[in-house]
């Protein structure tokens, strides 16, 4: 059996399949016990206290002696200390030789005057407060039955349901995060620049917090307390939707440069293969996109925190590195206030998949950002102001990260998974990439691209990355629909709220 060793100085490797005790690996090593698929086997004799090295980095220290061929599981590892955020330095690892993409255009829905184009043509509706959701959801059922068929160029109607707006401490410092996120979420390019807001009339999140000067008009806002009864509410919502749908229906796809595209990379349900197949392949696709002028965002603070120095080294300027440290520090404090630390990130599935701790998970997770310099770091819900590779601070939770990605302008997500998740978003297509072939075989009609070919030695990281890039362009151009979009597997809009609820 083969063993996958990532860097020469690694003192552990992983088998591509479960290796029963007695298995002789191709390098002559004998498994002293069963090594589960993707789990670490010691390549050399290691004494208690030795550093276990994977990805060329220390992922932990041994709590006991280990012989070559022995299984190293999470219980045997002491977590290394968390990297210091002071004096990180920046710009020492700037890659100026990114691969050139085969195409530099896609066919999207341009929004005149806007930085990014949409890739789907959707009417997005933003409630100012959850109190309106019952009425709004009934109205949307009718819109989908009665109005949507009349406007065949519109893909869908999506309600951006959230549970904030009232019953929250609106003036709390951290409330700015969810307010900014909701404000920007309704401006996602896939909504074509059309704004439709539904308020109750007495909520704390007043419409002027969602609608800017000039936008806060009767054309963009329905206030239920100003309607005479339920029927009038439904009529008002139907009328506004009809006029917005008529505008959206006139739009057509046109050929646009990659600079109009904003793509997001996320991973969830990771395993030990994620960091050597799906994530680096997505990273190569990211490099192609960035080199072609696109904006690519990656996220998930707790999944980069332990590798923050690798990210700082790729920051293009000092301010970007400083903001990186600020965002990490904010999240450290946020976790500490909740009485937890970074180790709370790894899930039982991660561990069963061979990822012993957050350090090992992080090193594999960062691979999805490719090798491009970091042009900008964003606070949660902020919109990028520069093209290129952007780190946007969000929680790693798939269900919270997704809405935050949309709030930062993402129109298409590439999602890497090892354990499998049917996750999807109503407002943007999600391309699912599996880290192992078994995952693709199990979920053939949920996984769009299999990166397990890299583990099997059938494809290089670059070849799989090229396939991911091609699928991004086809999806953005409306030629391909990922499985989650076809089945309409849409998760809730769990916008990040670190502030108090009253
Ligand atoms: Ca995630």
Report on this model:
- The protein has 502 residues and is α/β, with parallel strands linked by helices.
- The protein has 14 helices and 19 strands.
- A seven-stranded parallel beta sheet has the order 15-16-14-13-17-18-19, with helices on both faces. A four-stranded parallel beta sheet has the order 9-8-10-11, with helices on one face. Strands 1-2-5 form a three-stranded antiparallel beta sheet, with no helix packed on it.
- Helix 5 (278-291) links the parallel strand 13 (262-267) and strand 14.
- The chain is globular.
- The N and C termini lie far apart (58 Å).
- Bound molecules: calcium ion.
**Shape descriptor:** globular
**Which strand order spans the largest sheet, edge to edge or round the barrel?**
15-16-14-13-17-18-19
Q: Beta-strand level of the residues, as a percent range?
A: 15-25%
Question: What molecules are bound to this protein?
Answer: calcium ion
Mean pLDDT: 95
Radius of gyration: 24 Å
Our measurement of the CA-to-CA distance between the termini, rounded to an integer number of angstroms, reads 58 Å
Structural class label:
alpha/beta
- Biggest pleated sheet: 7 strands, parallel
Domains, number:
3
Unreliable spans are none
Helix fraction, binned, reads: 25-40%
Q: How many DSSP-defined strands? A: 19
Q: Any chance you could write out the topology, listing elements then pairs?
A:
Layout: E1 12-13, E2 40-42, E3 51-54, E4 57-62, E5 71-72, E6 77-78, E7 105-108, E8 122-127, H1 133-147, E9 156-159, H2 175-185, E10 197-199, H3 207-210, E11 221-223, H4 229-249, E12 254-257, E13 262-267, H5 278-291, E14 295-298, H6 308-313, H7 318-337, H8 348-352, H9 358-365, E15 374-378, E16 388-392, H10 398-407, E17 412-417, E18 430-434, H11 437-442, E19 449-450, H12 452-455, H13 461-476, H14 483-486
Parallel strand pairs: 8-9, 8-10, 10-11, 13-14, 13-17, 14-16, 15-16, 17-18, 18-19
Antiparallel strand pairs: 1-2, 2-5, 3-4, 4-6, 7-12
Helix pairs in contact: 1-4, 2-10, 5-13
The protein binds calcium ion.
Calcium ion is lined by residues 266-268, 300, 396, 398, 401.
């Amino acid at each position: 059996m083969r063993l996958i060793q990532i860097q020469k100085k690694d003192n552990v490797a992983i088998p591509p399949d479960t290796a029963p005790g007695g298995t002789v690996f191709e390098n002559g090593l004998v498994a002293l016990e069963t090594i589960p698929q993707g789990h670490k086997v010691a390549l050399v004799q290691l004494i208690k206290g030795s550093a276990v090295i994977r990805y060329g980095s220390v992922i932990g220290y041994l709590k006991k002696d280990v012989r070559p061929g022995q299984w190293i599981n999470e219980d045997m590892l002491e977590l290394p200390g968390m990297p210091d955020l002071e004096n990180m330095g920046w710009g020492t690892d700037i890659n100026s030789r990114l691969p050139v993409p085969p195409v530099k255009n896609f066919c999207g829905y341009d929004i005149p005057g806007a930085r990014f184009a949409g890739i789907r043509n959707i009417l997005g509706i933003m409630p100012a407060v959850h109190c309106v959701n019952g009425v709004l959801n009934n109205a949307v059922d009718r819109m989908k039955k009665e109005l949507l068929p009349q406007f065949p160029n519109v893909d869908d109607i999506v309600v951006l349901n959230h549970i904030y707006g009232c019953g929250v401490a609106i003036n709390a410092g951290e409330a700015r995060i969810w307010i900014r996120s909701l404000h920007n979420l309704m401006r996602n390019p896939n909504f074509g620049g059309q704004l439709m807001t539904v308020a109750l009339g007495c909520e704390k999140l007043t419409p002027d917090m969602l609608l800017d000067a000039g936008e806060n008009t009767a054309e963009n806002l329905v206030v239920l307390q100003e309607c005479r009864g339920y029927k009038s509410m439904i009529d008002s919502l139907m009328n506004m939707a009809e006029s917005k749908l008529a505008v959206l229906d006139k739009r057509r796809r046109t050929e646009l440069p990659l600079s109009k595209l904003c793509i997001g990379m996320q991973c969830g349900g990771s395993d030990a293969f994620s960091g050597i197949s799906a994530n680096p392949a997505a990273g190569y696709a990211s490099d192609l996109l960035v080199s072609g002028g696109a904006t690519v965002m990656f996220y998930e603070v707790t999944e980069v925190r332990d590798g923050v120095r690798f990210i700082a080294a790729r920051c293009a300027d000092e301010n970007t590195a400083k903001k990186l440290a600020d965002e990490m520090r904010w999240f450290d404090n946020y976790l500490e206030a909740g009485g937890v630390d970074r180790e709370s990130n790894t899930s039982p599935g991660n561990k069963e998949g061979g990822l012993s701790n957050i350090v090992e998970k992080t090193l594999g997770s960062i691979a999805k950002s490719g090798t491009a310099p970091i042009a900008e770091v964003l606070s949660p819900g902020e919109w990028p102001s520069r093209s290129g590779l952007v780190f946007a601070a969000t929680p790693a939770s798939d269900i919270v990260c997704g809405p935050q990605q949309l709030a930062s302008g993402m129109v298409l997500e590439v999602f890497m998974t090892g354990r499998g998740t049917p996750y999807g978003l109503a407002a943007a297509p999600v391309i699912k990439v599996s880290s192992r072939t078994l995952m693709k075989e199990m979920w053939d009609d949920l996984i769009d691209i299999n990166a397990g070919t890299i583990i099997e030695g059938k494809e290089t990281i670059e070849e799989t990355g090229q396939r991911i890039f091609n699928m991004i362009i086809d999806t953005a151009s409306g030629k391909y629909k990922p499985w989650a979009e076809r089945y309409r597997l849409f998760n809730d809009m769990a916008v990040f709220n670190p502030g108090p609820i009253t």
